[in-house]
Design goal:
heterodimer; A: 412 residues; alpha+beta; Dna Ligase, domain 1; D-amino Acid Aminotransferase, Chain A, domain 1; Rossmann fold; six-stranded antiparallel beta sheet; four-stranded antiparallel beta sheet; 13 helices; B: 312 residues; alpha/beta; 2 domains; seven-stranded mixed beta sheet; 32% helix; globular
Chain lengths: 412, 312
Amino acid sequence: MKIHEYQAKALLAARGIAVPQGRVATSAAEAVEAVRPLIEATGMPVVVVKSQIHAGGRGKGRFLEHPDLGGVQVVADARSGDPEPDVDAAEARVRALAERMLGSTLVTVQTGPEGKVVQRLYVEQGVDIARELYVSVVLDRSVGRNVVMASTEGGTEIEEVAAATPERIVREVVDPAVGLAPFQARRLAFALGLQGDAFARGVAFFTALERAFVELDADLVEVNPLVVTRGGDVVALDAKVGIDQNALFRHPDVVALRDPNEEEPAEAEAAGYGLSFIKLDGTIGCLVNGAGLAMATMDVIQHVGGMPANFLDVGGGASTENVTRAFKIITRDPNVKGIFVNIFGGIMRCDTIANGVVAAVRDVGLRVPLVVRLEGTNVELGREIIDGAGIPGLVAAADMKDGARKIVELTR
Amino acid sequence: MSRFVDVHTRVLVQGLGKVGQFHTDKAIAYGTNMVGAVHPGRGGSHHRFEGDSDPSGVPGRPGRYAVDLPVFDTVREAVAATGANASVVYVPPAGAADAIMEAADAGIPLVVCITEGIPVQDMVRAKRYLAGRATRLIGPNCPGVITPQQCKIGIMPGYIHRPGRVGVVSRSGTLTYEAVKQLSDVGLGQTTAVGIGGDPVNGTNFVDVLAEFEADPATEAVILIGEIGGTAEEDAAAWIAAHMSKPVAAFIAGSTAPPGKRMGHAGAIISGGQGTAAEKIGALEAAGVVIAPTPTDMASAVQEAMRRAGVL
């Protein structure tokens, strides 16, 4: 599950990790209200206005409506040399920015060309940056353990650093029975060249970050950049946190952070029914059981010249009702020109699928061709149900390549 | 002989809920030697399973079965009473990693975890717990393991399997069934089919299973079924190039999967440009593996690999 930067920072701050002070705003007025307390509390005459969307690259991203405007704006007080910052001027500039940013569409390298509408801003104190570093915690799948990665190349995508200068990334694999050991945290701090107060604060930061990763059941905690201030503080200037879907049952506080605006409605609806659905750009709707088979079904459709409209795994334990719901979600997509039901029953019995498909067709009708391929547990029963329903436009397939060919031909 | 499981395997089921009951019944019908169940709070009772034997299962059994399976509160008690040497876990996600550790603590040499949806950090801890212990974990989030007509542990439909010549190893349940059925249809059959599961942290990996198949005299060829995400297929390719004398075919799912999206399986995600199907196919081809272009072509890819190796 993805969350916003300001939510990630709140979760991390609650676990002892230093983050800048900030306030979230959903209107220009709220953004303006944030300015004075931040400047007064920190003594810094600079605030930063950051677009909150579930995508990276916001600083370099541009608004469709305002091609001159980036997604992250630094508002420095015009008279910042003065001992008394001009809060009124800063407020006026934040208001002007917020009015342009809120409700506009931010396009970044990660959003795709359609971009994402900004509905929340995070107004944050400015930070006096001495150095920009990188630190993250992820799962290292090859060893089945968490790994803390750090780099001196803050502000750059870690994949780029890994490709160009892999020697600048240091890794500490964590023994889950111990956590990040003090010697490992020190090694990271030495490798980043931290000194004096910043060294001790860095060690504490890395230790707390790894603990937060485990405690939150995160699948990613990335701080980029990690900033060393001129005063020797070590602060998470940006933060990205992703949470393991499988662990949400024990994190109701995280579930409450869901932002429906960031979700594809059909995907969110499907998830509510326990279905795994991902919308794609093609024209052939797929209803499949099993993630591997669902992926392979997309592949084979493309192999025979079609394009899948979705990934859909109805799962092993789906009920007839859920199959019906899945079918309805697929048929609602106006791009769908045909549907391919591809089932190999294991836990999932073919009669369950057949009943679900028949119920859905009776309920919503069938306006596009439908190819059904059934195999596995209770296959004879499933075929009887399908045949007995007498659905016009339904075509049976012998195997999945045959089914893919038939649905691609029928939609030409 | 066969690898992992055979007629001597004595199986406990952990978690006798609805799903556990359903598949325990199917396993007994197939002829798997189910010796007991563990369900905390139901110790001392028996659970009755009865029905018609699965004709595709272990040969030479009566047409019907009636078994009163003893239920225990703990795995340790169950092992002491039954001499079980394998267990299958159907415990729901929140308690599944604990069930795996309990089985390992009781010294069970083979634990097969079917449960899907276990939190990743629970599996990180469970894998650490297994390190240095004599327990092999298969899964989680897998269909299980079967040696046709000897022992079926898991949720695969038994009737599609035939005893034969090919070892099957896969990250995907339903694609395993596709491969198995094709191999049965062309008369090659299977020695053993192992689902290693679709989660990012699992017990047994491709290399472990390939090593078993390489050492198994009955296995003449192998089909490996992988998918996007992680580097397990690349690791398998390196091992095949260095150690495998038997022909290998493979199918990799997810050529058309968009990056950054979790394709159903928790482990099936292309992240940071890593874990694409193209990379995996390239690595396997370089190791001499015959690639099936679509899942319908898996058996023919095995036949092609066997012909090239001169064993067909």
